[in-house]
Amino acid sequence: MNNLINKEMIVLDLEAKTKDDVIEKLSRVIEKQERLIDFEGYVAQVKRREEQFPTSVGFEVSIPHGKCDSVKTAALAFARLKDEVQWSEEEKAKYVFLIAVPEAEAGNTHLQILAQLSRKIMREEFRNNLKEAQQVEEILELLEV
Question: Residues of 44-65 as b/e, b for ≥16 C-beta within 10 angstroms?
Answer without folding.
Answer: ebbbebbeeebbbbebbbbbbb
